Every structure is written in C-alpha cells, then in structure tokens.
C-alpha cells in the first residue's frame, strides 16, 4: 500500500491551551490570595488530615512552616484543641452547611481566640470529602470586649458603691438631724423607727446598761403590731437582755449574725419561756453593735431582720456609724436629764437660801432694832443725869474707851456713855453686815429690785452722804466738787445712797487720817455722743490700788491684801454690790488709781 491519503486531523488547541493557561493563572492568583489573606484558611479531610493550609495559618498559628499536607490534627495539636475542632467539624458535616464557631488555637505567644467559619466540600457525587475552615483571629477584639465588660462591671460596682455610700450618708444625716429634735428615749426610738426601718432592719432594740447593773430596753418597730407586742413583752418580762447582747456589752465588739438558727436562740435565751418568746419573734439575721461614748460602752443597738442573710460586713460599718450617733444622742439625753435635776435642786437651794436670808435678816434685825432703841434710851437717861447734857460724843471706833472719856462728865457716867456709843456702833455694823449679805444674795439670785423715783436729785444725795460721813469721820476733810445746780433723773435713791456711802466710806477707810476725800458730779456727753449723762466720782489721797488688784476689784469677796489695808475689816462685797446697783441703773463703773497717791472711783447714770 501506498499512502493514499493522509487524514489529517488537526484540532485547534489554542483555546484549550489558553484555557489551561488561564486556569493556571487563576489558580496562582487564588493561591496568592489565599496565602496572603490575613486569616487562616485550611482544608481538612474527614480524618482530620490537612489538605491545604494557607501561608498565614502556617506562620501565624501554631502550625508552623513545616506542616505538610497529609499531616493530621492529631499529630499536630494537643488534645483539647483538636477535640474541640473535631467536634465542630462533625457538626458541620452533620448540618451540611456553613457554621460559625469560636475556637481556641495554640499560638507561639499563648493561645488565641478565632472565629471560624466552617463548611463542607462535596465531591461530584455530592459526598462531603473535606471541611474548609476560615478562621479570623478575634483575640484582640475579644480582649477589648472583655476589657469593656470588665470596665463596665467595675463601673457598675463603683456606681453601686457610691450610691450605697450616698444612701448611707443621707441616712446618717437624716438620723443626726432627727436625733436633735428630742432629748428623751421615746423620741430617739421614734426617730430610729422612722429613719432606719424598714431599710436597715425590721426592728431595732436598744439596750442601755444603767449604773445600778439594771438594763433599760427600747424597741423600735413599724407597722407590725403583733411583733411589737411580742418584743415589748420580751423586754418587760426579761429585763436582762439575751446573752449575745450581754457579750457585746462586755467586750464592746460588734456582732454580725448572718443566720440566726434555732440552736442560737437556745444559746442566747435565759430559760424555756424566754426561748419560746424569741422563737415567736423569729429573728433570722441581725447585727448587735455597742453604743460607745468616750470609750465606754453604755449599751447596744440590735438591728434585726426576719429574713436570713440580710446583713453583710458593709452594713456593719453603717450600723457602727449609726450607733455612734445614737450613743451621742443618748449621752446628751442623760446630760440633759441630769442638768434638769441639778437645775431643779439648784433652784430649790436658791429658794431656800433666799428664804433663809430674808428670814435671817428680818429676824436678826428685829432684836437689833429693839436693842438699839434701849441703848439710845439709856444714852438719853445718862445724859440727862450729867451736868452738861449737850456734850456730844465722838462715835469714832478707832479710839479706845479710855481715850473717849470726857473731862466734863463725872467719870462713871462718861465711861458708861462711851460704852453705849460703842454698843450702838457695833449694832449698826451688825445691821450693815446683815443687809450687805442680804443684798449679795439678792444680786446672786437676780432679785435686786430697784424702786425708781422720778426727779431724784443726785446733787442733794451727794450733799446728804457727805454730811453724814463728815459727821462720823471728823478727822478727814470731805469736799464736794461740782458746777451743777441740780442733777436729776429716775433712780432708786436708797440704793444710790448705798453706793455713795460705800465709796466714800472706802475712801476714808483706805486713806490716812487727815487726808481729803472729794465727791464730784458733772453732766457729760455719753461715749457715743448721743446725749448727756451724769458722771460721779469719789477721789481720795489714800493708799491706792495696784493694777493687778484693780482688775478684780469689782468681784465678790475680793479684798486687797497689803500692809495698810489688812487691818481694816470688811467682807469684800461693798464694791461688788455698788457695781451691780450702778449697772442695773444702766450706768458704768470704773476706777483710776496710783499706789501711794490715791484712788478715784467713777460711775455714770443716765439723766432725765
Ligand atoms: P471691803 O471694803 O468690805 O473689803 P469693798 O468691796 O468695798 O469691800 O472693797 C474691796 C477691796 O478694795 C477692799 O478690801 C480694799 O482693799 C479695796 N479698796 C476699795 N476702795 C478702796 C480705796 N478707795 N482705796 C484703796 N483700796 C480700796
């Protein structure tokens, strides 16, 4: 055979070639995309063997570069992870669709969280032959999320704490304010019931330990009359509180009772009856806190709830704060009650003293007046018998009886007269002392009453006092210094006479014999220049008063102790009484003095 013909079949494979090339290019592209995608992409067959792992998964997860296709998860990963994955792979196979899981993958820097999308791959027969997983690293997102949750929780806790603290503060301040409203135990328990119940307890019991080993118990409860009756019965029938309260009283340490069991009630009760009452009251949790004032436990306050586990340690702090405030309120209540009693006793004593003083002064004065009358009668009789009845007798006490003897009288008579003078003088002195003491007690009791007289003339008063004093003290020179004709106003003349007599008397008592005492009066501007007032003064050339004593001179019973003054007798009340009389007249009193040169006492009185 010769070749007849050649059948040439030529197929244009350009397209196929091109298609192949295109496919290669597309696969390369896909590979590049898969490798460079910043997520883990992998294929595992049904036995867990890797069919494909992209570059990112190799380098960034625990797999490593060396992982080769065909290795299984069982060889590559520790137990926990692979079991988790395997379980998820099975779920995907069962479901036959894509599912999402959060998975943990070991990593070089510790394990990381992934969000894995997994789906089955099917062969041409529709049978699954592999599972493709695309896992995104969500560790950072997770961390941020967790942090956010943590912050959120912390914020919630802080807010709760702040709110709680705020509530506590509000409660405490409400309590403090309310506690000031009353000073008796009933008010305190009422305040407790209103402010603390039912927020902090279903009821409160205050136990106070009294000095005589007795207890006082108060119950604060709201709107539960049956329980209130039981609590009151318990407090009345068992004045000695349950034993755990005694323990708090003794140790001064608070007790928190999260769950009050029946056996606890058995322990704290005094006998079966008590136990029965406590059971009926049914406390389920509580706190007992000492009431402490100046480190002394004066009682306790119990907060009780009919719910178990109602209290935690934070509540104890609040309870202690409350206890501090209540202890203070109770302390104040006690002080107040004591002061009431003291005040009463003081008032009664004052009344008694008053009565005593007025009775004494009256009763003492009556016999003095009678005695004085008889002495004067005797004086007159003696003078009538004497040859020269006009002879006057010097009343100065500084002289002794012998010195007083007058040559114009027969000796016995003159001696008797002198003795009578002395008796008269001493009777007057006694009278003076009695009224000084009476005045003092009146001032102390705020009962120095003034009898104001309209148009009382101060100048006339000065003249009268100076005249009297001059007659009684002939060895001194008394002078009046004024340019006024008359100075009048509304005064208690008798009291002002007392003031002037005292000042002039002092000026004489505390000056050497022969010196001059000046009494002056002038109308002057008031310190505020609002008008005029009367200024009076008594000036002497006596011993003077040093500045230290000047500061105390108007205090009751104050006397200056110097060589010259100590021999002069006195009570130290004259200036005090004078000062009070002037002040009660709305005047002022002061002094100027120089030791060795003399003293001037000033006082002012309103005019008109
Ligand atoms: P008494 O004179 O009864 O002691 P007073 O209250 O009148 O009480 O006086 C208090 C004291 O003030 C006197 O003890 C005296 O030391 C002092 N005193 C009062 N007036 C004068 C005076 N004019 N000069 C010096 N001392 C005086």
Describe the structure.
23% of the residues are buried. With 608 residues, the chain is an alpha+beta fold. It has helices at 14-36, 55-60, 73-76, 79-95, 139-179, 185-196, 225-237, 243-251, 262-268, 272-281, 313-385, 401-404, 411-444, 458-472, 493-509, 547-550, 574-584, and strands at residues 40-45, 50-53, 99-105, 112-122, 128-137, 203-209, 215-221, 255-257, 285-293, 296-305, 453-457, 477-482, 488-491, 516-525, 532-539, 589-594, 598-606. The strands form four sheets. A five-stranded antiparallel sheet has the order 2-1-5-4-3, with helices on both faces. A five-stranded antiparallel sheet has the order 7-6-10-9-8, sandwiched between helices. Strands 12-14-15-17-16 form a five-stranded mixed sheet. Mean pLDDT is 86; it is low at 393-405. Helix content is 49%, strand content 20%. The protein is built from 17 helices and 17 strands. A hairpin with a 6-residue loop joins β14 and β15 (532-539). The protein is elongated, with a radius of gyration of 56 Å. Residues 502, 506-507, 510, 540, 542-543, 545, 553, 558-560, 565, 570-576, 599 line the site of adenosine-5'-diphosphate.
Give the topology, please.
Layout: H1 14-36, E1 40-45, E2 50-53, H2 55-60, H3 73-76, H4 79-95, E3 99-105, E4 112-122, E5 128-137, H5 139-179, H6 185-196, E6 203-209, E7 215-221, H7 225-237, H8 243-251, E8 255-257, H9 262-268, H10 272-281, E9 285-293, E10 296-305, H11 313-385, H12 401-404, H13 411-444, E11 453-457, H14 458-472, E12 477-482, E13 488-491, H15 493-509, E14 516-525, E15 532-539, H16 547-550, H17 574-584, E16 589-594, E17 598-606
Parallel strand pairs: 12-14
Antiparallel strand pairs: 1-2, 1-5, 3-4, 4-5, 6-7, 6-10, 8-9, 9-10, 11-13, 14-15, 15-17, 16-17
